[in-house]
């Protein structure tokens, strides 16, 4: 079942279980999606408010972008798990080329997660400055969560890069 | 409906909507819960593995603590929204004493979120050092997400403390 259709409790259970997926990469993407939704909320709490006449158009645009990023990040949560499952399958059958190809995909997904989360972080910074001041703490939360999502995604990029290096070293020692 | 029983997609939609709850406080608590579940996963990927004989008992204990923290943090996500809704109700009827009391509760909840998330962060640090090295990136992700949950919770503590100060100033100017 796709992550977006799972209840939060069920998702947490599947993270906690002894299977490696969903793991840090999927959780990073979900966190980035939550940060994007917080940005959208700050926009929605600013749109139509008479104290913020000059930023109405910008808020409508940011809300749309944040909504789009939230959907994309949630999709990446599933793709991250799928990519790592392919790595495990290739390792199981001991196919070095397939393992390398699978690892490369397992790097591309968190790279996208980091990129989109950085977009979310930038939007959070903007809405924190010009959005409804009553929702300032929400914008700050979004910024911090997006930053953690970027860092978590980078951990996944690093561990898979190391796995590719290890594969190359194994190849040479043959 | 309790947050734990909502699908991830539905939860994100309710965050993004133009109502202030669930907001940064609830999202912080859910992030802390996800970090706790990641810690539990690292333990579960270490328990029963012959390469880690010396840490088996500790991993079993940490898994139990992480599981407990995940449940508690998820519960705080609901309580955070409830607490802020009480603040809004009290403000609506213009009752200063009720508003202050509601704000004090709205501070206590993120204080708990920050405390439990700090516990999660400490456990993540431990499992990152002594747990299954294949899950090292998951432990690092857990640490970063728990840290962001602490920071987000602190944003909520701060904004509500400022609201209490503003209330006191209003009281004096009467």
Helical stretch count of chain A?
5
Strand residues, percent of chain A? under 5%
Most extensive interface, chain pair and sizes: A-B, 55 and 54 residues
| Termini Cα gap of chain A | 41 Å
Rg of chain A is: 19 Å
> Low-confidence parts of chain A lasting 5 or more residues at pLDDT below 50?
none
Q: How are the secondary structure elements laid out?
A:
Two copies of one chain form a homodimer.
Chain A: H1 8-16, H2 24-44, H3 56-93, H4 96-130, H5 136-172
Helix pairs in contact in A: 2-3, 2-4, 2-5, 3-4, 4-5
Describe the fold and architecture.
Two copies of one chain form a homodimer. In chain A, α2 (24-44) packs antiparallel against α3 (56-93), α3 (56-93) packs antiparallel against α4 (96-130) and α4 packs antiparallel against α5. By secondary structure, chain A is mostly helical. The first copy, chain A, is built from five helices and no strands. The mean pLDDT of chain A is 96. The termini of chain A are far apart. Chain A has helices spanning 8-16, 24-44, 56-93, 96-130, 136-172. Chains A and B meet through α1, α2, α3 and α5 of A and α1, α2, α3 and α5 of B.
């Amino acid at each position: 079942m796709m992550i977006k259709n799972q209840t939060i409790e069920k998702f947490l259970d599947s993270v906690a279980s002894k299977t490696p997926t969903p793991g840090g990469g999927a959780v990073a993407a979900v966190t980035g999606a939550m940060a994007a939704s917080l940005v959208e909320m700050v926009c929605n709490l600013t749109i139509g408010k008479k104290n913020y006449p000059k930023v109405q158009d910008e808020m409508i645009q940011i809300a749309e972008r944040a909504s789009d990023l939230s959907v994309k990040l949630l999709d990446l949560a599933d793709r991250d798990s799928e990519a790592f499952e392919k790595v495990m399958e290739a390792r199981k059958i001991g196919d070095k080329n397939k393992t390398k190809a699978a690892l490369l995909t397992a790097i591309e997904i968190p790279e996208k997660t980091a990129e989109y989360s950085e977009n979310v972080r930038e939007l959070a910074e903007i809405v924190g400055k010009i959005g409804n001041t009553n929702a300032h703490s929400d914008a700050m939360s979004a910024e911090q969560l997006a930053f953690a999502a970027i860092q978590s995604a980078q951990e996944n990029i690093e561990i898979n890069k190391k796995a590719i290096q290890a594969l190359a070293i194994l190849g040479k020692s043959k």
